[in-house]
Specification:
The complex is a heterodimer of chains A (306) and B (330). Chain A has 306 residues and is mainly alpha-helical. Chain A is built from 15 helices and no strands. Chain A has a single domain, classed as MetI-like fold, CATH 1.10.3720. Helices cover 74% and strands 0% of the residues of chain A. Chain B has one domain: Rossmann fold (3-Layer(aba) Sandwich). In chain B, the strands form two sheets. In chain B, strands 6-7-8-3-9-10-12-11 form an eight-stranded mixed sheet, with helices on both faces. A four-stranded antiparallel sheet of chain B has the order 2-1-4-5. Chain B is globular. Chain B is built from nine helices and twelve strands. The chains are: A mainly alpha (306), B alpha/beta (330).
Amino acid sequence: MSNVELQHNQAGLVQINRKKRWRTNASWKRFKKNKLAVFGAIVLITLLIVSVLAPILAPHNPYESTKGELGLFDVLAPPSGEHLLGTDSLGRDMLSRIIYGGRVSLTVAFVAVMIATFTGVLLGVVAGYYGKWVDTVIMRITDVVICFPVLFLAITVATILKPSLFNVIIIIGLVSWTTMTRLVRGEVLRLREMEYIEATKAMGQSDFIIIIKHILPNIMAPIIVQGTLQTAEAILTESALSFLGVGVQQPIPSWGNMLNEATSIMVLQFKPWVWMPAGFAILLTILCINFVGDGLRDALDPKEKN
Amino acid sequence: MPEKLLQVEALKKWFPIEGDGLLSKNQNIVKAVDDISFYIEKGETLGLVGESGCGKSTAGRVILRLIEATEGRIIIENEDIRALSSKKLKKKRKDMQIVFQDPYASLNPRLKVGQILEEPMSIHINISKKERKERVKQIMADVGLNAAYIDRYPHEFSGGQRQRIGIARALAVNPKLIIMDEPVSALDVSVQAQVLNLIQDLQAKYKLTYLFITHNLSVVKHISNRIAVMYLGKIVEISERDEFFENPKHPYSQALLSAIPKPDPKLKRQRVILNGDIPSPVNPPEGCRFHTRCPYVMDICKSVQPELKDAGNNHFVACHLESVITRKEE
């Protein structure tokens, strides 16, 4: 027996390096095959770079109204060489505001999703792992939060807390953890019954280590996918809140509050450059995030074959 | 008389299953393990046999307190496992380990073999990282794995190799008792023999005591010193191995034994064919659990539950018939 196995071993040794990162490679390969996901990833990375480099890339100060030839503010000017996307109702450069607005919108979305993911994963793991009454209590709370109409709740809270950048982040974080909780709880319920978890329990391993070392790494894939898709939703919520005037406040630009200009029928009908770029920015970002999310979901699914 | 390592007394595990309606009060109870008692001596292997769903795996898990028992005592070296505080239990876990059936589900796919084997050591044995690595390599060699594989992930191994890793993990803390929960059922027949031999070699080398749970009588014949047969949560027969195979007393055991295929086509077999299916453990039959399928059923079987009775030769049977039954096959 040992002879046969030894030969087998030596043959196997040669393969070690090649097979080592097998899992990651296969996922990456699957992701690359999905053209839409790759397109989305490229656009998103570009957006991120532009947001980070905003002070360098923006042609004008987004807070400053520009003056025209006559010394008057250049209000609602159509696109020109000077202002590539025109100016808004206060004469501020649209392109610069879009660039800075992306910075704000993306930050809000990312931080809010981080809060939501942390809360969601924590509650989901606790509910799924400990079960019994802990599970019941957490899941009923989750049900209650799900039942609240998000926008209505957000508007109410925003009015009480006073609208500000920080509060928008908190509000979105507070209402969007529920999906993650449910997802994580389900995954933990499934994993909890796995024999390798039982084996670590039989070793006398502490619950904390079991969760950190054995459960979390094995549910990372769905968490990443859900987190990605949640980001799109957070951007939408932020835009909606800002559009309604209870989110990010002027003069700080965000894609949502830039859309607010479209509430004027005159702007909506005759000055499309004032609201269309912001709308397109939101559309493009969400579309790309969803592409990437779908791509990740397929790529990280171990059941999927190449 | 050799020392008893594990003693199980009147162990019960009942699972309540909730009724359908929100307000329905009538709870059904699955009596997965219902009042079983047995002991294992140091260094011996007790084979626990039974068809699927008879509660043998539950029994194994209850003994390790992976599932809390409903009633009964589990005594390992004069310590009642059920009475231990969680802190003491954690220490005690060093002495009792388990090997699982499914070599694919029993290893964390994200950890390397080295990490898997180091984990139990890091909990129970206070040694430096370097010593731990040495020990991992040594245990890998013990179970017939090339120590060069230490940085490989479980998915890079075959089923048999994975089961070896599972055994190595159980061995890592020098346990006294290992519960083998169908350790070879998921493996190819050729690999089964290798792993069984490994399990036996390790027992001799480390003076291990096994509770070997399986549904495979040939495996049990190969590996056990004594055999216990379970049917619907109860032990119906418990005996020395040779005595059991030569002179099975319980009608259920006789039926099981007659079902073992024999490698001689000319040999005429008289099979005891059982009628019907194993009854549901939710509402097990009154009296002897086996009476619905027993070929020798009497009136008393339908009302009185037979106790395990000594039939001589360290052979215990739970049957009202015991004295009447002789082996039919010869």
